[in-house]
Design goal:
Elements lengths: L4 E5 L5 H13 L4 E5 L1 H10 L4 H5 L4 E3 L17 E7 L1 H8 L6 H11 L4 E5 L6 H12 L3 E2 L13 H15 L15 H12 L1
Parallel strand pairs: 1-2, 1-4, 2-3, 4-5, 5-6
Helix pairs in contact: 1-7, 4-6
Length: about 200
């Protein structure tokens, strides 16, 4: 049986990344342990039609963000890693500086010290040098920085296709198999030639 994956949703715009990730993981039979910040709960109201209870129902275990005595606050509790989706700059800053003032940051710090994958889907743009410095510092500690930047090689036809591609990239980092998007297998040279000839004519 696979180890549980910790999922944290913080208060950046894009809470749908965390919600949809939980939904996908549930469909895959992957055990999830969830932490939702107060700001994320507020953004859930603003950005989606989901209630907090809807989101909690997608996880196997849910923790209060103030419960620093929770199981995921200890390295002796084994997990397969942690994904913060989305990740605020405040959360990024706290992780980069080991300022473990709540359970999200404590669980992330534990993930790093135990050398488990920690994926931070940082949501902010444009970025100033302070943001970049924090990302660099977090990366130096072992975090994987994965801002949800859309790709188009898989020819998305909906917003959910774009969301799934970013979620899939995050799941790749923690070794969870999925079929959320069509992977790049090289460009068909014959198709490229046909397209070149079409443009030329």
């Amino acid at each position: 049986m696979s180890l549980p994956l910790v999922v944290a949703i913080t208060g950046a715009t894009g809470v749908i990344y965390g919600v949809e990730m939980l939904s996908v993981l549930k469909s895959l039979g992957q055990e999830t342990h969830l932490i939702v910040s107060d700001a994320a709960a507020k953004n859930l109201e603003i950005e989606t039609s989901y209630t907090l209870e809807d989101v909690k129902s997608l996880a196997d275990v849910v923790y209060d963000n103030n419960d620093i005595g929770a199981s995921v606050a200890s390295g002796s509790f084994r997990t397969s890693g942690m994904i913060v989706a989305p990740c605020t700059v405040k959360t990024l800053s706290s992780i980069a500086n080991s300022f473990t003032y709540n359970l999200v940051v404590r669980a992330a710090d534990v993930t790093l010290k135990e050398r488990r994958p920690l994926v931070l889907m940082v949501r902010e743009t444009p970025l100033h040098k302070g943001h970049l410095d924090l990302m660099s510092r977090a990366a130096d500690c072992g975090a994987i920085l994965l801002p949800p930047m859309p790709a188009f090689y898989h020819k998305p036809e909906s917003i959910m296709d774009i969301i799934h591609q970013s979620i899939g990239k995050a799941l790749d980092q923690v070794g969870i198999e999925h079929n959320l998007f069509t992977r790049w297998n090289g460009h068909d040279r014959k198709e490229q030639l046909r397209e070149t000839l079409r443009i030329a004519t």
